[in-house]
Amino acid sequence: MTDTRRHFIKGAAGLAALAPFMTVSALMQRAAASPVSHLQFGTTAEEAYGIAYKAHEDIMAYPGLEMHGDETVGMLVYPGMTMLDLVGPQYFFASMMGANVHLVSKDERLEPVMGDTGFAVVPTLSMADCPEDLDILFVPGGTSGTVDAMLDEQTVEFVADRGSRATHVTSVCTGSLILGQAGLLEGRRATSHWATRHLLPEFGARPVNERVVTDGRLVTGAGVSAGLDFALALLARLRGDAYAKAIQLQAEYAPEPIFDAGTPETIDPKLGEPLHKMFATTIFAMRQAASQRRNTQ
Predict the structure, then answer these.
(1) For residue 89, which of 275, 247, 279 has the smallest C-alpha distance?
(2) What percent of the chain has pLDDT over 90?
(3) pLDDT value, residue 40
(4) Residue 295's pLDDT is what?
(5) Is 130 a catalytic residue?
(6) 259 — alpha (psi -120 to 50), left (phi > 0) or beta?
(7) What's residue 65's pLDDT?
(8) Is residue 98 pLDDT above 80, yes or no?
(9) Each residue of 100-150: pLDDT tens digit?
């Protein structure tokens, strides 16, 4: 018996197709509720298992697809972060078979961490217990919560330490400013939320107006929803384009925005300019945090 076959049989209850979350029974329930022909999914549990097993083998044989890995991912969580910055990338990272994805908190009690829109996530590791060597260090953004993180010595030291060794140092939205506060952007091309991208030179970075910016081991995503594009790009880098495309289909990520207003360049300036100015206090606080870092160096 090959290792691949043994791996599939051992995890058959949870390794249908590509998703680590899709069990064979869940696939059967979908087939039963779907107008699609039941025959292609099987009419018995045994048939469904056989179809899923064969599909797994077919995907494994797809050119350039790296199904299994052992990446270690540390995703920082902190009070006041923007949850979509975190949750979108976490979905894609957790869809990498074999990867170990950790939500890392400063709190050693691992109490739930409240985001900026009023719901919380439960961390899985404290900073003290986080592996020292990460394949991916990820930092989400936010507004006032991000300012607090930028000013928190333990958080900045953790990011600086793990970031000094991580294979990929990454962020979404204003998370790049935390990377900058930790000294990880010096001389690098990077992006951030459109409202704060102009602050990147405060940390020695060169701002780039793109959804995803890669500079060596540094990969940064623009604001909030760009986390999905960021995660797909990083997934392709780690597992190949074919794997990333399969997970894109699994997530049904095929955006068709109702409005063409997702950038300052495409929205009516009478809406966009005052919206930018509404961030004035946050931008001021972030600039002050950057100045404090320079003064202590």
Answers:
(1) 247
(2) 78
(3) 80
(4) 73
(5) no
(6) beta
(7) 85
(8) yes
(9) 999 999 999 999 999 999 999 999 999 999 999 999 999 999 999 999 999
**89 closest CA partner among 43, 138, 42:** 138
> How many residues does the structure list for the chain?
297
Q: How many CA atoms lie within 13 A of 225 on its CB side?
A: 7
| Structural domains of the chain, ranges and CATH numbers in brackets | 3-60 (no CATH), 72-250+284-296 (3.40.50.880)
Give kind and range of the element (H or E) at residue 154: helix 153-165
Planar angle of CA 149, 151, 154, nearest 5 degrees: 70
Q: For residue 272, give every residue at least 6 positions away whose Cβ sits within 8 Å of its Cβ, in sequence order, or none.
A: 264
Tell me which of 173, 212, 213, 289 is the catalytic residue.
173
Phi (first) and psi of residue 225, to 5 degrees: -65, -20
- Give me the chain's average pLDDT, please: 89
Q: Which residues of 60-97 are buried (b: 16+ CB within 10 A; e: fewer)?
A: eeeeebebeeebbbbbbbbbbbbbbbbbbbbbbbbbbb
